[in-house]
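Run log, item B.
One chain of 708 residues. Sequence copied directly from the ordering sheet:
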Amino acid sequence: MKTKVRQICLGLAIGFSPLLAMADFGLSSSSNFYDIDTGAGLTFSIRRTDNGVSTQSAGDIASLKYNGIEYQIQSRGSQINSGFDWLYDGVSAVSVSANTVGSDFIKVTVQAGDLTHYYMARRGYPHIYMGTYFTSEPNVHGHVRYIMRLNSSLLPNGNRAGDLRETNRTVEASDIFALPNGETRSKHYSNERAKDWQYFGATGNNVGMWIVRGNQEGSSGGPFYRSLLNQTTSSSQELTYIVNYGQAQTEAFRMGVLNDYTFVATNGSRPGNDIDTSWFSQMGLLGYVPDSQRGQVAAVGINGRESGFEYTVGFANDTAQYWVPATESSGFFKTEPMRAGTYNMTVYKNELEVFSGSVTVRAGQVTILHSITIDKDPAKDDAIWRIGHWDGTPREFLNGDKVTQMHPSDSRISTWDQGNFIVGSHDSSHMPAYFWRDINNDHVIYFRLRDSERAQGHKVRIGLTCAFAGGRPRIRVNDWLSPIEYPSNQPRTRNLTTGSYRCNNVTYTYDVPANAWKTDGSWNVMTMSVISGFTSTNWLSPSFSLDAIDLMGTKQTAASTNSTPAQPDPAPADPTPAQPDPAPVDPTPAQPDPAPADPTPAQPSPAPADPTPAQPSPAPADPTPAQPDPVPADPTPAQPGPAPADPTPTQPDPAPGNGSESAVDDGTSTTTDVTIGKNTISIGAFPALHGVLAVLLFVIGRKRSAAK
């Protein structure tokens, strides 16, 4: 009988052991660690001291167990960037302290230079609540991101686009790879727009581990910013929460804000969107602003919206950013609680700015706005023809549905050039989403005009969502060649190849005179070329992402004057140095399949016999010969007037490497300034020097990484 009772008691103890573990909420410490038990099956340890290992630091999560199983990899800590002791130049000291707050909360404080990071636990919740506050940007890596480094064998199911397992070659720099079948993988391709996600994570056998974001008020880039979220290697499942990041960044970074986010452990289920952080008011956190000191903005509606498009209202100033969707029925919106202050308010049609204004938020109040009327939508202008939608994205074009999730050389992309575009015969999906000087340049558009339309000049508008290495369009209409335009103001990093078309929307407008048109009603031939003074090649050659192209009619609105807005603050010069192996100066040699020398001569699509029956003259049997002269390889000599003395007064063009080089483009230059530490080296048209510099940069980067 006693034996049977012992067996029953033992069985109950085993069966209820997780519940027993959940009862042990508390904080304990040893000489090297603070140990926290959430009382909900999740325990974690924070390293108190520097153990001399370069991949670990005081302030790291050194152990993370859920239901008794260790998920933290032991070779590296979970940490800010590459460790709290390597955030600021010359600052390696890290202090770590811990205390209980009342009977239900625990706070661990990590101080490193001008950055303070908090880990917090709440009784009965399998969560690690985190907050990051800083008064100056950590300057070693030039960004702030928290990386959870978990065991990928226990959490194998992450974001497929960021799964590097089974890749066998490098495609670009040191962060884009390919599988044997040609499909590409990178942490960059795990991206989502900030407005589209509330949590992300990875799962395993009866377990899920997630990061749930806060309101992202201290981040940068706005509602459409795409940042990496997840990378999976053979040993590590990395969940990365971006506070700020320089890749394709369009805003200055924000300081003095508490950025909160929460790690959540589950039995495999999704965590949900709502994490209660109201109790943060009891925790004494730097930068915390309670709802009582915040206000809101609401509007009755938005007039002038176009059906079929999503509208988002964004708010931004130097301190904070917010966004809210407008309702489909009326455009009504009401924001979450915002910090008091005056904000730039922007209405977006998908991702295109169509209204801007200013609004002041007052603590404890809701600012009510009357109906807003859209006044900057280019789609409202009369057009003879239009290719694409004016919405700030290239999604409707060829491969536009793929570009954020894979490299443009990916085997799932069959072509970047389907031949000439014939107005009236082809839809937008025939036009490429991206254009590169080396890949699909000199794209031809055929169109015809009626007598009344030929009698006057018209404007051609080309909208871009992003550009790289000074890439911008130049057009030839029959025998007329447009002037060289200024490069647009864009981030100084890779963008199109790393999964982002979201930079600064700009519109180039070309005044084509009446004498440029064919006078007999036959086909007009417009060639759009990518020009730039940069000499980078292949997929990193000068390039841009397309929003829309149109030939304008006679009726125009104020939207037609919306041209190339100035970027208020340039992105950091080098936002990507956190890569353990720095990219070579010219990473393109790793491209396995170079673009053909001339991708456009074999245009397969002849013009239809007559897509515009009202025109008396039939189309030529083969419209390609009607192209009078190809655009010169160097467009500058053909410029009838001199190019502007300095076409980049506000923002130098992005360098063609990984964002760490700088150069200025005057439309013809072949000189590049490469910065190594505090030294700048100018190299001209001497290809051999590029290889030497690539080796130097690689060795320097490796030594720096080893020093860490």
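Observations after the first pass:
- Residues 528 and 553 are 20 Å apart (CA to CA).
- Residues 1-22, 557-708 have pLDDT under 50 and may be disordered.
Flagged for discussion on Thursday.
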